[in-house]
Every structure is written in structure tokens, then in C-alpha cells.
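Hi support team,

I'm opening this ticket because the web form for multi-chain structure prediction keeps timing out on my end. I have pasted the exact lines I submitted so you can reproduce it. The total is 815 residues across two entries, so I didn't expect it to be a heavy job. Is there a limit I'm missing, or should I split the entries? Thanks in advance, R.K.
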Amino acid sequence: MLLELSPDQEVLREATARYLADRVPAEAVRRLRHDPAGFEADYWQGGAELGWTSLLVGEEQGGGSISGSALVDLTLVAHEFGLRAAPGPLAATNVVAAALGAAGPAHSEVLADILSGATVAAWCLGGPPPLDRLDSVGLALRVDGDDLVLDGVSRPVESAAQAGHLLVAARGEEGLTQLLVPAATPGVTVEPLRTVDLTRRFFAVRMDGVRVPRAAVVGEVGAAADQIERQLQRAIVILNAETVGAMQAAFDMTVRWAFERYSFGRPLASYQALKHRFADMKTWLEGAHAVNDSAAAAVDAGSPDAGELVSAAKSFIGDYGTELLQDCVQLHGGIGVTYEHDLHLYLRRVTVNRALCGTPAEHRQRVAAVVEHLKERA
Amino acid sequence: MTSDISTGTGSAAGAANAEATESVADFRRRARTWIRANLRPLEHNEGAGVMRADTTDEEELAAVARERQIQRMLFDAGLAGICFPREYGGQGLSPEHQRAFNEEITGFEYPGRLQAPTFSPCAAVLLEFGTPEQKERHLPAIIKGEEIWMQFLSEPSSGSDVAGALTTAVREGDDWILNGSKIWTTGAWWSDWALCLARTNWDVPKHRGLTVFIMPLRQPGIDVQRIEMLNGNKEFCQEFITDVRVPDTDRIGDVDNGWTVGTRWMFHERMLHNSPFVTVPAGWSYGGVDATVLVDVARDAGRLDEPRVRDLIGEGRVLDLVRESLQGRIGRGVVSRRMPDQSAAIGRLFAGIASTRVTSMAYDIAGSAGAAWSAEDGAVAECGNDFLLRQTTCIGGGTTEMARNVISERVLGMPREPALDRDRAFRDVPRGGSGRS
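Hello R.K., no limit was hit. The queue was backed up. Here is the completed structure from your submission:
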């Protein structure tokens, strides 16, 4: 997270922090383990009132950023989410809201419900393995007269069973298209997947000959590739910010533990072998903060290196986020892998985020493709 | 007297009151125009590798002369000493101006040998602790490229334990007489002045008996010996100091208070990659092997299309980008006081570890041609020697082990390592051999 916030950004961060501390302390997160949605509807609406859903949407559509750098603002919320392993489909809802907002007034009613927190939104992009690779989509699109017909399976789709509408990416002869599909459309089935996170819910969304009118298209038929790339960049930055928050919480918790826990008559924090590991973890943590802040700023600025920075951040934070968490577990010893301890709440979140929107290795391939031509660019 | 790394900013603010400060955008335009008109664009991967032994002494001296000339040209163009106060020949501008300059000079020749240790830590320490006379005498000379400085800090018997210096200064009237030996000075054989940490009191604990002096490097009492590194590079030197007379007016800071200076001295050394006093081309990698070098090695080895190789290239570039972002975060954090000064060790640790990793990757991508190569192998050549010298980036400028101590103890507040010399007169502290006869 940024070291220095503007007063308005600090208001947003502080309000989110207080709200989450009140509504979703660790016991509440544990209680949501068996809740079908993983979050309570009024909790999400309360968050929407704080601005959780509207930052990436233009003012004329009922949204608005705090600082003019909308994604940077949203990373402040996501960081607080990470600090508490908080429930709620923050990344998907914001990405869908941004896409609908950018498409003009065509989908303004749905957008209004998302902004108010009355509903959440889900984003169907990848498919079952191996269609979960970056640049793959799970659904196929066919034009049939005035209708568009969707077939296939998209997964994992967060909060698909809770969402009123699904933003669907589909590939057809014309290229990539995005459509807004009401979840209740005939032919849409939603099956739950199991996951490691306590409060996030993922689904497989199956579409069998799902028919929607052309008005469902978000943007243009066959012209969604850039739009999807931009959504992916935003989703990644939000997930990263959440992971960095979870890394920060786990690291702080483990530093406290090192001071409090005594072995052989001295605190763990006095052993050089452990101190050096804390130094390494602190370095990874600060690197994770730094690179995601750079990525967020680059995406907001529409900078040519945004894609490279986003992939670098996803790769680094994916690898070192889980590495840091597992090291925190190791430094805690047995208590670190029990259900009663809070550490696993963060381990779960970081583990899930690592695999979503492209693995570290996939993003390294993307970065390699950029750096290969770096000198030509310069 | 003690200030912080934002000294340049403070001076810029002062200058702004006197006359309108040049905007960063205007400065950038002026720098760009001048650089393109006056400096030579770098060849492909010029300067890549780890301390390569690829120049003769004549070429090295010619390169030093050219860098002095460039520094003078920068001074004449009003582009030298960007964050140094105007009264000492600098521009009195801000770290943002320096950053813009770093971006503009990327890809062009620049006086790299003059940056560290001349501008930082040496000139930074002079600016912070020097008397007005000392600053007037040396800072303009440094900014014009007339004085190249070395740091007489490490000794054969103490690397990480810098405060355990044995080089001794004894008072004689208005002068001090220095004896001892210093080591790991890069290019002392073509340098002019030295900033020297010496022991002035053996009867107090080690940190309380040190004093800092400055002295001309080329004088009869200083014997500069070049050290041959394992690849044949001879840029590192060791100095033998015998009865060198230093006037008391060339003392920096108070007698026996050298550690106050030394602490800031090492801070400036760790901040090197993000110092407002240093010109570092944007994207410059610590140690000279970065992901763009990996691409060249892979291409010249015919392996650029292998997914495994591309994974390494991607990882190398990720480390480069994280290092750049991290240095920026630490630089801003220290200036704004959101992070303690000692956080500089975080950037130092990351840079060292990342560099060793990327150097290893280059050797792996090179394949057997890394072990045995011909002159026609392109970027693959010398990857083996780079690998042999891989650890230099985790040793020079303070070891990564010391950085880990600093981070855990000074940033995270964990208990200090027990030190058997802490409350003991330095004369009574046990000492081992030097490791170097």
C-alpha cells in the first residue's frame, strides 16, 4: 500500500478499516465458513455506501474516484480486505462495474444496483483446465439471426450464485465479445466448486444454448480483447493489493509472536537464524507493496508499461506472498496450522489469489515476451 | 549540522525563494537536448557483466579522463551536482530533477566512475559534516570532475565490523599522523582524495574512539597496491598508510566522534541506488547483469524460444522491476520519515539477492558455452566469469548478512546480537588475523 495517502484517501481507508473491524473480526469470518454466500447482504451494502463498488465508475454514471487515480484508491480498500481476510467479491464486482460504466448508458440499471450494493456481479472468463490459461475463455459465442447464443463452461466464477448478472467473455468467429447475461436466463446452470478460502465462493457456470439479444453486448461484438485485457489488469491489481494486505497482517502477527514466544529462556526474536528470515520476509513484503503500487499507478495512467508491471507484480506477489505465509506458519510451529489460529485465514486468501487471473509462471512468460522486445521499444 | 538525505530538497527550497526554480519538465527538456547533442549513445550491452577484466590500463585511464571531461561539460551546462547547493557549484534542485536526469541519461555515456564513492558517500558526507572551508574547497572541485574520491573505510582485518578499524591517527601539534591499511577501494590508483576513518583513542569502546579525516591520495606516505580479482580485474586496491601527516583542518566532525559521521556515511552508501546526489541511469542494475542481458544470452545461445529459458528471463525481469519499485518506495519513505533511515538496508538486501539470482540464470541459459566459449559467442562469452564473481553484489557496500542484521534489529526492533566488544576499551578487544598478509 502507498506510504503516503491524501487526506481523502485516508478517510476512505480509515472508514473501511473501522467497518471491517466492526463487521468481520476473525470470529465472524470463521462463522461464515458454512454460509452459502460467504457474506451478508447488508454487510456488502454498507461497504458499497463507503465506496467499495463505485471507484472505477465515472461520476456521470454514479461513481467517482477519490484522487483521480481510481485503481490506486481501490487498492486501499483491497489492502484493508487483505488485512482482515474480509469476505465479499471485491475484484469481480469492481471489474464488472468498470466494464459496464465504460460501455455507456446501455446497462445503467444493472450498474446502479451494483453501485448501491443491492447486487454483486460475477465475471465469467476462463474455462475448466486447460482453458484456465491466460488468454483462454470458457464460453463460445454464435450469432443466430438477432440472437446471440452461448455455449460452454466458465470457471472458477466467484459469487456466480449470488450475482444477479454475469459479465461473460466469449469467443466466436468475430473474436472476443463481452455480454451481460441475467443469471436467471434459461440454459444457465451454476454449480458450486470447493475452495480453500473460508468466505469466497466459486462456481462453474454452464451455458447450454443460452440465447440473449444483441442488447446484451457490452461494447461491440468481436471487439472485446482490449477491454478484457484492461479488466484483467484491474482484477490482478485488486487481488494483489489484497494479498499484500494479507502478507502484512501475517507478517506483523509473526513478528509479535517472535517477541512473545520464549524458547531456551530467550525470545525467538533474539535468534540470528530467525532474525535473518524476518529480514528476508520484510524485504519481500516491501517489494510486494512497491511493485503493486507501481502497477496500480501505471494502469491508472494508461502507461505503456502497465501490462508488464501488472504481470511482474502478479508473478512476484504470487510467489513471495505464499512463500512469506508458509514461512510465517513455519515460524509459528504447530499452532500455525490449526483452525483456532488466525494465520490460516491469510494463508487461504494468499493461496487462492496466487492461482487466480494467471499463475506466477504464466505471468513470467508474459513478462518475457515484453522484455524480449524492450530494446526495440527504447 | 546533521541533516538527512533530503538536504538537496531543503537547498532547493532555499533557492526557490531567491529565484524561480526550473520546473522538472523544463529541466528534463534542457537535459535531453544537451545529452543528445553532447554524449555518445552506449553500444549494445556496453558495460554489462560483473567486474569484467576487459580493459587495459591505458583504456581505463582514458575512460577516467573522458569521465572527468564529461563531468566538466555537465558543470558548464548547468547539469552537474543537481541536488547540491548552488553556493558549492551545484544546481540546488530537487530529487525529482535528479530522477528526470537519470531517465534522460539512460542509454548514453555518463561519468559512472565518479558517482560512487565520490558523489556518495564522500561528497554527501562532506556536505553534511564538513566545515564551510572544507565544502568550499572540495565540493565545487568534485562537481567539476577535478577531484575523484575514495572511501578509506574497510580494512584487511575488519570488513563488516567497520568500527573495528585499526588505522591509527595520533595528534602531533596541529597535525595528525596516520598509520595503517585500507582496502577495497575501487580505482584508487587513478583517484585524488580519500575520506578516511581512523582510530584516535584506544582506551574507550570501539565506536567512541574513531575520527574521520580527508587526505590527498597521491602522496609519498600512501602506497596504493592493486588487487587482482579472480578474473584478472585489478580495479580494487589496498593502501598502505605510513606516517601520513594530516592537518587538523582536514578533520571531518569532532575528535572521537567519527562514528556519528560513520553511521551517516554508511547510510549514504546503502542509499546509493536511490540517492539524490548520484546519477544512476534509470533501470541500471546493481552488478551489471539484468534481464535484457538474459535476452541477449538466450538469443546468442539459440535458446530464446525455450519455455524454460523464457521463464528465467521473465523472473529476471520481475526482479529488476521489483527492485526499481522498491528503491523508489524506500527513497520516498525515508525522505518523508515514514520509514527509518535504516530501511536502506532493505533495498540493499533485495538488490544483492536479485543480482546473484540473475547472474546464475545467465550462466544456466548460456549452457556449456558459459564454461568454454569463443570470441564469436556474443553475449554468452564471459557469463562463466560473471558467475565466479556472483557474490560481489552481496559483499560490496556492506554484506547482505549485515543488511539482515540491520533490518531485523534496527527496522523491526529485534534484540541486538551480543557483542563482546561493546563496553570494553578497544585496546583489550581480542583480534584475529587479517585474512590478507
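A quick check on our side: Chain A has a mean pLDDT of 96. Let us know if the file doesn't open in your viewer.
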